[in-house]
Amino acid sequence: MAGDEVITDDGRIYDTDRITFIRGHLTQLQRATAEGVPVKGYFYWSTMDNLEWTAGFGNRFGLVYVDFKTQKRTPKMSAEWFREAAKQNAVV
Predict the structure, then answer these.
(1) Half-sphere exposure (CA, 13 Å, Cβ side) for 56?
(2) Which residues are 73's β-sheet partners?
(3) What's this model's pTM, rounded to 2 decimal places?
């Protein structure tokens, strides 16, 4: 899920579209397992923002914002949401 995120004045990245995207996938995964589909796990592809071959450094895909100049990493709101979902083993 590509986004155009920026760090706001309060130091956070509000990537609510990514949360909606991940929640939708996990909800369908939960439905599939309830119907007997053997799922062994779920892997979110991009933990951190990085170079994407088709988008360069423009769009951001990760759960963690990377300042490409300083390499500082800042967890996005989606990282916090995903951590809670994993901790509770439930779509929250």
Answers:
(1) 1
(2) 66
(3) 0.88
Residue 68 · residue 57 · CB < 8 Å: yes
Show pLDDT as tens, one digit a residue, over the chain (92 residues): 888 888 999 999 999 999 999 999 999 999 999 999 999 988 888 899 988 888 788 889 999 999 999 999 999 999 999 999 999 988 87
Assign 16 to helix, strand or coil.
Answer: helix
Q: What is the DSSP string of 18-29?
A: HHHHHHHHHHHH
16-34 helix and 77-88 helix, angle to the nearest 10 degrees: 20
Return d(Cα 28, Cα 49) in angstroms, integer: 25
Strand partners, 57: none
Inter-residue long-range contacts of 86-92, CB under 8 Å, 24+ positions, other chains counted? 91/23, 91/26, 91/27, 91/30
